[in-house]
Amino acid sequence: MTPELFGADSFHLNTNGHRSVFNELWRIHRSQPCKPQSAHVARAVGEAGMGVMCALGDELEPLVKDAKGFVRHNLAAEGKAHKIGWSAHAPGSSLTLCATLPREDKDAKVLDMKTRILVHKKDRITRPLDRKGEGTYRISLGFQVSHPRNRPLFGVARVDCYGACNCTCSNQGNAAAGCSIDTLQNTSMVTITTYLKLVASEQAVPPPADAPSSSCPADSCIIRVRNAAEAEAGETEGRFRVIVRALIFGLNDWRTTLMPLDGALKDVRRQR
């Protein structure tokens, strides 16, 4: 018996008693064998990264590879803050962007959802990835769009993905691979950046037959932007001008819910 660990009623533990109980529980806990640690176990959500990456203007440069006809261009007026984009004017131009998918953040998210006993209704924004087969990742490409008085005329940009991912144009009803955006708009006399939204799944996709040999890392999601190869039927003036301003990609969950979605600059986008 250790009466010094109890209070005056000899029933309730005193301060020394609580400390003694804590020390004994801690000793037992530390003596338990630990599970072997695996190098492939996903990190906890709190330890993972942001799960989304945004590159605007000059921040695109590290992602740009294999630029054919696209060049870095300062779009700002003289004396103004730089506004960098990657622009093409010649037909048949292409631009390759190398995106590293946030795989560790995806694994952490999946592990977190599996270990939850009950998901509260307020956690709807942390819904599981790839819901309804939409894709594990979400991509938004920012293009400069303008009006007919801005010459040379802006044209159609076509986007497809290959390498470590497959992407579809999510603002279309079908699931056709790749999509396009017409960057010439007639709704206003302004020049702004608008976004084409895609969803992507992680799978090995061989490069298209007309794609150049890529210098992207082997595990990259390769995003290719092209303009028209020739003037469309009925056009008196070829529309080949395409300007890429930004790239956002991340997990298809709450992290990218507020990314530029459908409805901005209505009637700009069109599927080919």
Highlighted features:
272 residues; 31% strand; mainly beta; single chain; disordered C terminus; eleven-stranded antiparallel beta sheet; elongated
Order of helices and strands: HEEEEEHEEEEEE
Intertermini distance? 85 Å
Number of structurally distinct domains: 1
What is the name of the CATH superfamily?
A: Galactose-binding domain-like
Low-confidence stretches: 38-42, 172-177, 261-272
CATH-level-2 architecture: Sandwich
Largest sheet: 11 strands, antiparallel
Counting DSSP E segments of at least 2 residues, the number of strands comes to 11
What is the tally of helical segments?
2
CATH topology: Jelly Rolls
Approximate helicity band = 10-25%
Write down the oligomeric state: single chain
- State the shape: elongated
Average pLDDT metric: 81
The top-level CATH class is Mainly Beta
Please characterize this protein's 3D structure.
The protein is mostly beta strands and 272 residues long. It has one domain (52-256): Jelly Rolls (Sandwich). The protein is built from 2 helices and 11 strands. It has helices at residues 15-31, 103-115, and strands at 52-56, 64-68, 70-74, 84-88, 94-99, 137-145, 156-169, 179-182, 192-205, 221-226, 242-251. Strands 1, 2, 3, 4, 5, 6, 7, 8, 9, 10 and 11 form an 11-stranded antiparallel beta sheet that branches. The longest helix has 17 residues, at 15-31. Mean pLDDT is 81; it is low at 38-42, 172-177 and 261-272.
